[in-house]
Amino acid sequence: MIDTYQRCPRCHKTFSQRKPKSLQYTMAWTIAALIMLIPANMYPMMVYYKLGVGKASTIFEGIIQFVQSGMLPIALIIFIASFVIPLGKILALFFLMYNAKKSQKKTLKQQSKLYHLVEYLGPWSMLDVFVVAVMAAIVKLGFITNIEAADGITYFTLMVVFTMFAAESFDPRLLWDNHSEPKE
Amino acid sequence: MQEKQPLDSLIACKQCDGLFTLPKLKEGQKARCCHCGGTLTVFKRNSVERSMALSVAGLVFFVPAVSLPIFGISAAGNANEASLIESIVLAINNGDYIVATALFLFTIAIPLVRLIMSLVIHLSLRAQKNTAKLRTFFRSYQNLDSWAMVHVLLLGVIISMYKLGESSELQIGTGLVSLCLLLFCSTMLSITMDHQHIWQQLDECPNG
User: Is the ipTM of this complex over 0.90?
Assistant: First the structure.
């Protein structure tokens, strides 16, 4: 009943009381994102050619490079944007989906805020992708230095897009449904 | 149910579905949901004029932001610079189609479309041309909100500059300045645009 489509009497657009099949779509997208997480971290993000010698680096290796050259704040930003946020989003979505089925009333307001956070932080995981894309375009100095983007970036982009789709298909009102009084 | 309230005076919280009576707000006031803290509605100051001005300004800054070089690098006698469009073309040539698509969509297409959409909506409402199609139009505008990533791009550019700055000389391009201004306009636009007001105006239209 709650999932069926109804037509708006004024403008005939279809809508439903809750996003239809919200949990199924969210679970599907979240699992897809989780699957993408593996190649995203295993394949290198970019290849740094210095005087003809190429050095491929994954996200993690890139972060370590920043730490070694002393740029700790940047290493932290990239660590947060490329590891903490995507992983956090996936875990948070699993947590929210579990709560949509059977939740504890005490933390309901925090759960709502968690969803809001997941939705808001969505685009920021794309940070590393943009960094590599921009560097690959600009650092084209022929033989001396050359940067090229590698396979890992594609998987990473897909992973971020999947988590954004997952957050969009989740209906936060489901969290509250467990606690509303039964209507007539 | 119990007493019948006219639908126009009710508002539902988007996050928790709590139903409230629409409060009479003064200019600049905001109503919050008691249950979950989400914003119910805001009455924004001088929304229409400011939004239209910002949309036009954003569009003006858009063209140089995208086509002029973001920044340039020079080391050991070689120099190179690239714009946003050049980055995308380079990604395509390299075979990274998904990255190129993502770059194009999230930093060029969607921000541009949103600016144009905001202008179209305000102009249509001004010209009293309300239709049911305009509602779907505005709904898509709201859905596209989280997919415009110019701010992430800008942080990415800053980080690249930081990393490259230690080994080579950098030159800030006009494209970067325009990007910052574009971001400023888009952000201000999302602040000044009064969605509730627009929906109310859309509601007043006869079935079209």
Answer: no
